[in-house]
Amino acid sequence: MNTPLIGLDWGSTRLRAYRFDEVGGVADTRALPWGSRQLPQGGFEEAFARAVEGWPHAPVLACGMVGSRGGWREVPYLDTPCRLEALGRSLTAIDAPDGRTVHIVPGLRDPAGPDVMRGEETQVAGVLARMPGLAGNARLLMPGTHSKWVRVRDDAVTGFTTLMTGELFALLRGHSVLGAGLPEGGADDEAFARGVAAAQASGAAGGLSRLFSTRALMLEGALAPASVADFLSGLLIGDELRMALAAGWATPDAPVLVVGEDALCARYRQAAPAFGLSLQSTPGATAASGLWRVAAAAGLLHGLSHA
Amino acid sequence: MNTPLIGLDWGSTRLRAYRFDEVGGVADTRALPWGSRQLPQGGFEEAFARAVEGWPHAPVLACGMVGSRGGWREVPYLDTPCRLEALGRSLTAIDAPDGRTVHIVPGLRDPAGPDVMRGEETQVAGVLARMPGLAGNARLLMPGTHSKWVRVRDDAVTGFTTLMTGELFALLRGHSVLGAGLPEGGADDEAFARGVAAAQASGAAGGLSRLFSTRALMLEGALAPASVADFLSGLLIGDELRMALAAGWATPDAPVLVVGEDALCARYRQAAPAFGLSLQSTPGATAASGLWRVAAAAGLLHGLSHA
């Protein structure tokens, strides 16, 4: 079987490698625990060699924190507004020890923030490759450690912002007076909903103004210790939605596409109605679709036709 | 010299012991690193014995986390609205091994939050003992790990809220992608002012919506790594002021008294004008004054006259 492209979605904590078939389908996937912040002995070169071991010498395209400061090579950002087609024309090439060339997708920078992203630009390209009808005008949410809210118009990213919900949750859950040392709970949807409601009720002050109520509720027995994490999750996700609305990244009348891990997206969809927001799911494996699309725009798919 | 009272201001990370003279002045002070979360071998009893070693067998009054769950003894909260005189009528007595009796001041609970405090209620009593003209109507800010915003009317605490600014700062500075591993800086007032301005410019979305700009500014060289902590401090303190205004704990036309450590209070006063707020300093040693006042209300000062 022919392999026209190998794609790498290389973040700060993990690496996903894709071997593509001739029509842009994923023939093989490898998931490795080596992100830019946690690498094997031998660093990026060794992680790369293991990720593509035994795969044909096809062109390699990589996106994500691999191109950040502290990554394999720091590659420049493109400023917004940025047409998605432009990503493929601004690749940076690295020579790997095995003779392969690894092309790295640039990140995006929104000068208005300023704000930056690496990897999500490729996911946006993948979403729009799968849902081309949206390329004219879309709003996307990519929840996670650093949630991204993205505006697309005329097949260009016109702006974006980062809200640090996932990282704040991890800090508060693991290291704060609110969450440290508490028992693990199951998924407590009711506690999550209470957190969302607290964020919604916080009004203009915002969910962070209600943070300490978590402790007071637990002390007086109104919130079980094992449910604190879910309450906090609801409070922070709710506050993310509030902030996105207040800053104009979402409006109640325009649907937002949610791109990411199923369980996390489900929580955002659960929280959305309290804020009058409509969040819509998107097809998975958007990074792979995006890598294929960027490779096509870059002319890396030698002799293959592409959409 | 007669010692009518020993006071203990006993928080989660430290213990301050005061030996009072006949007129409520502090004749001697001891500062010990033993809070309710970090105690010597022998626990509370041993810490207490060392704190009062060699001092006369006077009545002992303690406030703060010593009365919390996980403290020496969990003592109840009084609900707001709560007259400050009521604190002295709700003490809990513990018998120490040396035969002394330690009386613990109750904390306060605001059922509207819910929210809780332990120790600050005694500081409020101390501030108003020193500035009795304010007891009719005052707003206080006690900045710190868990900042408290307090409303006083007719010598009663009518409500309060906790904003976790100090703890969020410590988490973001020490453990987040924004601050972990960065060099220590000096006090960079200009970076602090930039953080305050970013919080102010965030409008209704709030300062947390601008958190990730810290990283983007640093990556592009617009914020020196050694100045990140000050920028974050300005952003978070600014956002605390924004939240307090949005939730009605402060109004631009009513001055707020700031009670706490000088350097921290100075930063809050530096940030206040951007939000149209007027923050006024208060005399120091408010916990000692409060302990004396509560002891007087409790009738612990046998035979002494008091204001």
UniProtKB/TrEMBL annotation, chains A, B:
Q: In which domain of life is the source organism classified?
A: Bacteria
In alphabetical order, the GO MF annotations are: 2-dehydro-3-deoxygalactonokinase activity
Which terms under GO biological process does the entry name? D-galactonate catabolic process
Entry-linked InterPro entries: DGOK, DGOK_C, DGOK_N
Query: Which key words are in the record?
Result: Kinase, Transferase
| Name listed for the protein in its UniProt record | 2-dehydro-3-deoxygalactonokinase
Pfam families per the UniProt record, alphabetical: DGOK
